[in-house]
Amino acid sequence: MDIYIPIFIFCLVATITPGPNNIMVMTSGLNHGIRKTVPHLVGIIIGFPTMVACIGLGLGAIFLKYPLLHQAIKICGIVYLLYLAWKIANAGNPEADSKLKEPFTFLQAAAFQWLNPKAWVIAIGAIATFTTVGNVEFQLATILLGFFSMGAISMTLWLLLGSSLKRLLHSQRELRIFNICMAILLALSDKNDLGIHTEYITDGIMKLAAKGVITNRNKGHKEGRMVASSAIGTQNLYEFLHDNPSIDFQPSDYVNDPGVIASHNKMVSMNVAMAMDLTGQVAADAFAYNHFSGVTGILDFVRGANQARGGKSIMMIPSTSNKGQKSRIVPMLDDMAVVVPRGDAHYVASEYGAVNLFG
Question: Which of 199, 223, 239, 351 is catalytic?
């Protein structure tokens, strides 16, 4: 009995904390519903313990002998994570290819475990911690039972969370914004020691902090603290913020000060453009002569990130609108307000790639 409790606690913590599987199941539950996400769910529940069993029965020794093989799988996993992030970002986009909107099948979800960076860390950690010479078979069986049972509970909860979010997202635009946020979180899920200086703190940022991806240890400015001027999200987010000494709320004239932004190490700003012309001018308005928002902090963060040591600003833009019939990249912005001047545009990324306009 002594071995069961620590193993099951380890399995519960490992499977319920945010990671690629959790984010993908939640997003699939939101976009496709519970019934269509069940094959994805079952693929994780069965696929991950199968991977753990293979490693425990000797496959791990192969990677110890040939570390380059493990490194190659890790690189493939990162590349595939980025592809999945792009797929999630387009899940709620009516203009996207229909293949990008399809939920994972059972086999796809099971096979993904071999490319999931978090899965490798958890699997190797569990085997190294809870197995000893002489009783490996019983201990490995207990670990597999723990991951199967706790994984089923955890993934089901994340699926139900995603499905329940439908009640909070009332328009296609809100769904699109949510999917883009989840895509960014998925792409960042295998990073570490990130720092946050932002206008808004959201649930996604809270989850990355809970996972240990965000530590704010190497920011270079107000290290150890997340700096923001606002927050919007669920009740869990507000409880996370309440009396949290690692959260530092400041007025907008401080958070959006380009000099303050530039004082961070390797500052990266990420913003979404509605349109861009061939000279590099960026617009953030939804339609011609229709302001999408008032004065924003986009330019503040673009200039601050560009001035930071090792920093960069990234403008993200879908290449077309109107179901692919109209380009968002135009010869000249003659009917939209310019938000980012051509001299400030740095990196621009679309579904077809990225370019550095600084040369």
Answer: 199
